[in-house]
User: Which sequence fits this backbone?
């Protein structure tokens, strides 16, 4: 049983422990400067910025934004790009912003694209996996979700009134998964955990009931030109899951209430970039996310 700075080993947290955890959090970077201000200046022609909500912790400080087409064409497929569900996973947010700035307009004629670059702005500022309620938004995509990040994103997607062909959700796997976030999870839930080997490289997470491996492999092949693909560990797995194709594992996204499971899109993938690699830079990680989004869009086109 690992010890954590909050709570008693083996005993789930109550409100007191969750409040303790919240009191330890602090703003480490500015979501306004790094995301919102940047976003205002990079919207290409044919798209507009839509505020679809705000987080109740501080509605003025944490608006929720999507980039949407100014006109919708029902004859074209529709795609959703999400980033920053886990706010600490920087390239999920910055990669989405770079895609908006550099590539989005290239696809406007072929696809109705909706981009939500920062689902969890409080977590972006505080570099957290959880929200202030000690809830993981990426395990909270279900009706009456207690996570406002998840709840408001689901409401936004419902409001689009369109069947999505593609959903790509941009994430990272970091060394802090083992050093902080998984120990915190075990402490919160009063359970134990085993550390897994953090994969050195990029991989994707397909949807178990409908993995679409040719689609996943198209994403992997595109990213190979930007960064290295994560190899399996000595057990032939990546983060404890079987490798079903080069750089590809599967999770049942709906049963785990993941962001990638909130739609019925036929093509779904979660990207995972490794920013702590000796061979990675922030720009390289952002470029890997952009390459993944472009490859996913190219596949459905």
Assistant:
């Amino acid at each position: 049983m690992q010890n954590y700075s909050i709570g008693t080993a083996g005993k789930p947290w109550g409100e007191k422990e969750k409040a303790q955890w919240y009191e330890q959090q602090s703003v480490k970077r500015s979501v306004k400067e790094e995301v919102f201000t940047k976003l205002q200046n990079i919207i290409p022609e044919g798209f507009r910025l839509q505020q679809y909500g705000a987080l109740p912790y501080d509605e003025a400080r944490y608006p929720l934004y999507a980039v949407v087409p100014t006109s919708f064409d029902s004859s074209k497929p529709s795609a959703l790009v999400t980033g920053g569900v886990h706010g600490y996973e920087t390239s999920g947010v910055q990669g989405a912003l770079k895609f908006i700035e550099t590539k989005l307009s290239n696809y406007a004629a072929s696809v109705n694209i909706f981009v939500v670059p920062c689902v969890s702005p409080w977590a972006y500022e505080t570099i957290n996996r959880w929200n202030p309620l000690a809830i993981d938004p990426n395990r909270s995509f279900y009706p009456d979700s207690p996570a406002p990040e998840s709840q408001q994103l689901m409401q936004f997607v419902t409001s689009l009134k369109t069947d999505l062909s593609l959903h790509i959700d941009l994430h990272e796997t970091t060394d802090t998964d083992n050093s902080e976030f998984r120990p915190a999870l075990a402490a919160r839930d009063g359970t134990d955990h085993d550390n897994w080997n953090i994969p050195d490289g990029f991989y994707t997470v397909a949807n178990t009931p409908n993995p679409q491996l040719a689609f996943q492999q198209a994403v992997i092949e595109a990213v190979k030109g930007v960064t290295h693909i994560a190899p399996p560990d000595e057990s032939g797995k990546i983060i404890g899951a079987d490798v079903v194709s080069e750089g590809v594992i599967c999770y049942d996204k709906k049963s785990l209430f993941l962001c990638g499971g909130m739609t019925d899109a036929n093509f779904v993938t979660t990207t995972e970039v490794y920013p702590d690699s000796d061979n990675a830079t922030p720009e390289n990680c952002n470029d890997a996310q952009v390459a993944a989004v472009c490859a996913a869009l190219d596949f459905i086109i």
